[in-house]
Fold:
Amino acid sequence: MKRMGVIAVSAALALGAVGVAGYYGIRSAGESKARQMIAAFQSSLPPGTTFEYRDLVVSPTGLSLTLSDVTFANPAEQMTASLASLALSNPGFSGTKVQTIDIGFSKLDLALTRPDATLTTTVRQASFDDVDIANSIAFAKRMKGAKTLADVEPAAFSTLDAGPVDLRGFSLNVPATGVNATLGKMTLEGITAGRMGKLAYEDYDLRTSDGMVHMGSLALDGLDLPRALRWAQQTQAQQARGEPPTFDVLGLRSIEAKGLALTSRERSVALDRFALADLESDRGMLVRATLAVEGFQVPAAQVAEPTRSFLEGQGLDRLAVDLTFAHRLDGATQSLSLGPLAINGGPLGKASASLSLTGLDASMLLAAARRPEALLDSARLDGFSIASTAGPLTAAYADLLLAQQGLTRADLAAMVNAQGGQELGTILGPDLGGRLVGALTAFIENPKAFSLSVKAKQGPMNLTQLGMGLALVPQRVVAAYDITVGP
Structure:
C-alpha cells in the first residue's frame, strides 16, 4: 500500500513536470513567434523610424502579449513616444484569423516637437476592448492622406466598431499657446457602425492665457460620427457660400454636464448642472428637446447696475438661477408645445410660461420660414399659461427698477387699473376683465402670486380668426376658451 502511494506521488510529479515543461515550451514558442512578428513590423517602418522594447512576455493561458519599456520615434514627423507597458490580450478568432483584440497600455508619454509649436501628452493608463483589427486598418487607410475636413469620407466612420474604452490620467500641454488640459477619466461604452454609446468625462480642466474651464463631469449619449461629419462638411460649405448653418442634433440622445466653472480675465460663471434630453431634429429643425439648467451662478460684482448694488446691499455675493424648458413638435398630431419655460431666481421669485399650438408640422414650419403669413391660417391656438410667484426680495427689487423711471408700485397699479380696466373690460367682458385687472394690480401692490391660463374648449381658433375676433367680436373669442385667473 505504501508502495502504491509512492508510485502515485511519483506519477503526479512526473505529470506536473511534463505540464510545466509543456507550458514553458508553448510560452517560449509563442514569445519566439511574437519576436519574429515584431521584427517584421520594425523592418517595415519608414527609414529613421524606430520601435523598441525592453522585454516581451507571452501568457498562453491568458492569451496575452505584454511589452515593457516601449519607445517609438518618427523623426520625419518629429514625434517620440514611450510606454511603460503595452498589452494585447483576449483575441477573438474568425476561423484561424484573429479578428478582435483588447489593447491596454500604461504611462504613455507623447511629444511632438516642431518649429511652430511643441505638444506633450501623457496618459496614466488606458484600455481599448474588442478592437476589430481589419476594420481599424481599413479605417486608417481610408483616413490616410486626408488633409482637410472635405477629404474625409463619412462612410469610413460607418464601419467603425469597437468595445468599451477606459482612459485615466490624461494631460496635454502646448507651451506656445499657453494651453494646458487635464482629464481625470474618460469612458466610452463602445461604437457600433459609427454610432457612439455613452461617452463620459470626469474632472476636466482647461487653462489658457485667457482663462480657465473646469468641468466635474460631461456625458454624451448616441453621437453619430458619420452624421456629424456630414453636417460639419455641409456647414463648412454653407459658410463658404455665406449661408446660415443647418441645425442637427447629430444623433445625440442626451447631453449632461455637472460642476461647470468658467473664468476669464474679467468674468466668471458657475453652473451646477446643464442637461439636454429627448433630442431630435428633422430637416434642419429641432423638433424635440428638454432643457434643464441648475445653479447658474453669476457673481454680483459682474451684474449690471442697479442690480449689482441691490444684490450687494442684500448681502448676496452672487445671483443664482434655475431654468427648465420643453419643446415638442409632433407631426402625427400636428401639434407644437413650447414650455413650460420655468425660471427660478431664488429670492427674486420665479415665473413660468407655456404655449400650445395645433395644425402644425415640420413641413409647415419650414414653409413659414420663407412665408410667415402662411401660419396665420394653419396655426391654431390650443392654449397658453403664465404664472409668477414672488420671492422675499421681489417687492424691493421692483421698487428699485420702478424708481429708475420715477414710479412707485402704487403708481403702476393705478395705471394698470385705469388703462387696462377699460380695455380688458371691452375685450373680455366686465366680469373676466375686472378679475384679471384686479389680480394684476394686487400682485403689483403686494407681490405674492399671479397666474393666467387659456385653454380651447373644443375647436381652437387659427391666428387669423383670433386677430379678427378680438378686433370685431371679442365675446366670440372669450366664449371659445376657458380662461382662468388666479392669485
